[in-house]
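Take a record.
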Amino acid sequence: MIKTILVAFLCFTSLIAMAQNVSAKNVLEKAIDYHDPNGNWQSFNDKFTVEMTTPNSAKRTSHISINLPDEYFEVEATRDTVTTTYTLTKKKCAMYYNGMLLDSIAAKEKKMSCDRALLYKNYYTYLYGLPMKLNDPGTNLSDKVENKTFKGKDYLVLKVTYDEAVGSDVWYFYFDPITYAMEIYQFFKTDDNGNEKPDSGEYILLSEEAMVNDIKMPKVRAWYYNKGDKYLGTDSLIED
């Protein structure tokens, strides 16, 4: 027992020393080198499928196409007997309901909109483009590398805030201190003064990996509320 505690203590102190001797920029560079060693994200042009399961709801299957050079995005999502499709080509938006192209009036009746299309684009390119997206303009990386223990494992943690035009949430990214693989991300809402609200937001546990366009992407993402660790759902990536 004493030996186990001593080993854990030495590992933790070693992690602290590592965090003190490495810069946040260096951690991010190593994480990007792990996930995207050939720099493929900037020219990403591929497709993948995400299956989402949530308590008490039917499974949703989303087929996603992202072509960054051509500024093209498409998500076709099916739940039960309904399939909705959003496409964005540069600034041009199109929406389909069970394969039928909708005009603005019909889209409103189906509670679909181009704003939602943009929301989906930002959502999928952000989460599946991490950690590479942390180099985007408007992203503010804290200089300090934090060391945290989350669910019994030690991590190097980067804190990120965003310019007002980008977003107001505060994000934390947890990396394995040996491989620099991204294994958790977490965000908190902020009050009017920009302070974190500790009972807000969510954390997402990442497990397994899938190769998409030669990029190591998290295959399984399990979502939880920060408050009470309430389980929200799981996204599973399936390579097309």
